[in-house]
Amino acid sequence: MQFVGIDLAWGDRQPTGLAVLDEDAQLLHVSAVRTDEEIKAALTPYVEGPCLVAVDAPLVVVNATGSRPAEQQLTRDFRRFEAGTHPSNTGKPEFANGTRGARVCKMFGLDMDPRSGRKRRAIEVYPHPATVVLFGLGKTLKYKAKPGRSLDLLRSELLLLMDHVERIVVTNRTWAELRTQVQGATRKVDLRHVEDQVDAVVCAYVALFADRWPERTTTYGDLERGYIVTPTLPDAHTTIRAAVEEYTRLHPSRIEAAHEYVALVTEILDEAGINYLTVTGRAKSIESFAAKAGRTVDGVPVYADPLREITDQVGVRVITYVRSDVAAVAEVLGSQLTVIDDRDLGQETASEGRFGYASRHLQVTRNGGPTAQVQVRTVLQHAWAEFEHDIRYKGTVPEEHARDFDRRFTLAAGLLELADQEFTTIRDRLRGGAVNEPEIDAEGITPRELAAYLAGQYPDAEWSRTDHYAWIAGLLPELEISTLAALGDVLADVDADQVTARMDYRYPPGAVRRLDDALLAAFGDTYVDLPGNAHRQPLLRTRLERMRG
Q1: Which residues pair with 220 in a beta bridge?
Q2: pLDDT tens digits for 493-519?
């Protein structure tokens, strides 16, 4: 038995995708043609014996206007997945004299009755709702070229569809070549040549599915007025259970991704010289994912496609000291990672005239890998959020106290926002102010002494992390710098303005980063090769090249 898919264009000018699967779902053929004669030449070897041909195009159209009953019924079920059909009627020129689909079936001598038991037959199918069911999608993938859809979006969505297909079909070399074409596409038309063939493979699999699992297949409409065959839409409970099972399988990789993102974000912030309190991360637990996936509103699931719509499966949290650092962290992460979404929840709360939850949420990815939600907030915002979450979601608030608690949480949020503003003012006034510098001829340089010295040396610089002062103070002896006087002599020979111009800082760097660059300018390769810099030599060499112009 051969299972054939035809993504049939309604006219001869557009390409038609063809695909053939055997009973083991192995891809035997995939191609694109235009004319009926080319369809006949390509598929004849596969349809001479037992076959089921799935055609993505109307086979039976008898209504003069509007849409067919089958289209109306299918759209009613799949509209929420954005998988509704286009209307077919004889008022359209392409259906005025019958359908091309019926002519192709007649050319091969195929029975078009969906209830037929003959060995050589054809059915009408529609890939979009089929992908929703087969791959558990909450929305159809947006790989079709339409106004407002970028080349990058079309490419990523088509590659995602191909990933899904490869889970149910044993592909071949031609398929691999199609994937390469998609990855290297520079025009939307390059993707169009491939998408018809991918759709044809989906059609062929729907034919296999309908033959093997008729009890899991729905036929909308009938032979007399037109029909569409597609895998049956499961109930919400089945979808949620399948999503939880898949997340359980993926959970180890999510844990690994969380560790990698924490290391990456820490490296990016340290390289930028931005001050922060902590960077932590986690993979969402299976229990937490299951609870979130099962949420409903008025009996309707909140997430139609939990695996795609629950975006905090990998979470990273950056805690800063003051609010201005939140914006700096978001900016530097945006320059190094691909930002899919950026929401300032504090700004959204303020726009509603309220005090409450405040946090910057970035949805990021890197090199097409797994996404992560990065939450950036101040230590005071974090304290409020953690306490509020603990009380509201983990504790029980008596109904008689609910309104009073709401008022008190709002009051606390307002006070903390004021405190954040005051902390920012304190830091801004300290920056650039007079500093009582330590004696510069004392032997040995402690982190505290170095911090005070750098505050005077770089009065416009941001504060750096406490452990960073200790780290760079530990490097100085490797350069035979044991006193602040010796350090001052080194820095006196460095053109600080030139270093700043060459490095072209996109955000105010911390004092330790300023010293780091000054030592790099002063000692060059010797500084790069210090044992204490072994973990970051590639970064330092890149910086040194930029510094040398």
Answers
A1: 228
A2: 999 989 988 988 877 788 899 999 999
